[in-house]
Amino acid sequence: MTLAQFNANAETDRLLRQESVEQMMIQHVTQRKMAEVLGVSPACINKDIKQIKQRWREIHAEKFQDYALEELAKLKALEAAMWPEAMEGKGYAVERVLQVMDHRAKIIGLYAPAQSKVQVITEDILDNAIADYQARLEQLTIEAGDSEPGEIEEARRIESGDSPEGNDTGL
């Protein structure tokens, strides 16, 4: 057997195995069971599945593109038919042209969802932000000459009931 014959046989074996794997995928057979039935390693089955799924994506992408182009051509014809009446101001025609334009925008992806960034704010983040703002406020108050260093901290202790004399408020 020549190397070319060996490679041809290996390719034929691979294609036949992938046909079997594809059928088993449709039947929801586990990869482990596929490997057992076909006498190959699970890694081989995994590789086959990736290739099968890639082939499916390519086939469906081509079909989708053909479908989208056909739909766009139909929309263009509908728009052309309704355009003169829409330009005359006939309400129903204007509405239909706008619907055609809306549908075209959806097909070509103009309404694709925008990405948004979500930031989770935890209690620790809030506590740190509050402490930063309090420190900055104290610094600005001192710079403005409204109080001496330590007076603001003393006022906070009294306000929270942590005065050096305990909870005695003097009443």
Structural description of this entry:
- With 171 residues, the chain is an all-alpha fold.
- The chain folds into two domains: 99 residues, no CATH class; 38 residues.
- 74% of the residues lie in helices and 0% in strands.
- The chain contains six helices and no strands.
- Helix 1 crosses helix 3, helix 2 packs across helix 3 and helix 3 packs antiparallel against helix 4.
- The longest helix has 46 residues.
- The protein is flat, with a radius of gyration of 36 Å.
- The N and C termini lie far apart (107 Å).
- The mean pLDDT is 84.
Structural domain tally: 2
What is the string of SSEs from the N terminus onward?
HHHHHH
**What portion of residues is helical?**
over 70%
Strand content: under 5%
| Amino-to-carboxy terminus distance | 107 Å
* SS class: mainly alpha
The main pleated sheet reads as: none
Number of helices: 6
The outline comes out as flat
Radius of gyration: 36 Å
Would you count the extended β strands for me?
Answer: 0
Poorly predicted spans: none
Q: Tell me, rounded to a whole number, the average pLDDT.
A: 84
List keywords for this structure.
171 residues, mainly alpha, 0% strand, 2 domains
Task: Summarize the helices and strands and which ones pair or pack.
Layout lengths: L2 H24 L4 H8 L3 H46 L3 H18 L14 H21 L7 H10 L11
Helix pairs in contact: 1-3, 2-3, 3-4
